[in-house]
Specification:
It is globular, with a radius of gyration of 17 Å. The termini are far apart. It is about 35% helix and about 25% strand. It contains six helices and six strands; from the N terminus they run ααβββααβββαα. It has helices at about 10-15, 20-25, 75-90, 95-105, 140-150, 160-165, and strands spanning about 30-40, 40-50, 65-70, 115-120, 125-130, 135-140. By secondary structure, it is of the alpha+beta class. The longest helix is centred in the middle third of the chain and has 14 residues, at about 75-90.
């Protein structure tokens, strides 16, 4: 009898149905792309986009994970202000932005250098994690897409960062 030699991940993949891998933990998803945001001489964060397939498909954003690892300390209020500025530039109405910012204000912490904030989009909205700890849920699909659009919209303020994240750089 011949034994098949298999790594731990390979064995897991053999024993796990394909549908479960596609919807499984974001940590197992392959990286689509990576980018670093710099502002002047300062590095603000490193980012990574992940998907179950390892590809970015603009019409299927219901299974994406955006991982941001901060390289600086940033107070929550500054994160909220920067998010509002980006949503305003993307043309989202003030009433929606204010409602969405209230949701984020209840979820987001101040971030410290080395912290990771992760946003995992799913069909009902999205989930925020700080490192691997759940910190909050977004139950609004439009808000979830609007948040991702800060980085992934063709109209983003950071087109080079977008290209890198979606694997086109």
């Amino acid at each position: 009898m011949r034994l098949l030699k298999c790594s731990g991940l390979g064995l897991l993949m053999l024993l796990t149905p394909l549908s479960a891998l596609a919807t499984g933990p974001w940590q197992m998803w392959p990286t689509v792309g990576e980018a670093t945001l710099k502002w002047g001489p300062w590095v603000i964060y490193d980012s990574q986009l992940r998907s179950p397939s390892g590809q970015y498909e603009p019409d299927q954003v219901s299974s994406l994970a955006l991982v941001i690892k901060y390289r600086r300390n940033i107070p929550k209020d500054d994160l909220l202000e920067a998010t509002d500025e980006q949503w305003q530039k993307l043309g989202f109405p003030a009433m929606k932005r204010q409602r969405w910012l209230r949701v984020l204000a209840d979820i987001w912490p101040d971030v410290r250098q080395g912290d990771r904030l992760i946003f995992v989009v799913h069909p009902a909205g999205g989930t925020f994690y700080q490192d691997n700890r759940l910190i909050g849920e977004v139950s609004d699909q439009e808000m979830a897409k609007a948040f991702l659009n800060i980085w992934l919209s063709p109209d983003t303020e950071y087109p080079e960062l977008r290209k890198q994240l979606i694997g086109q750089a």
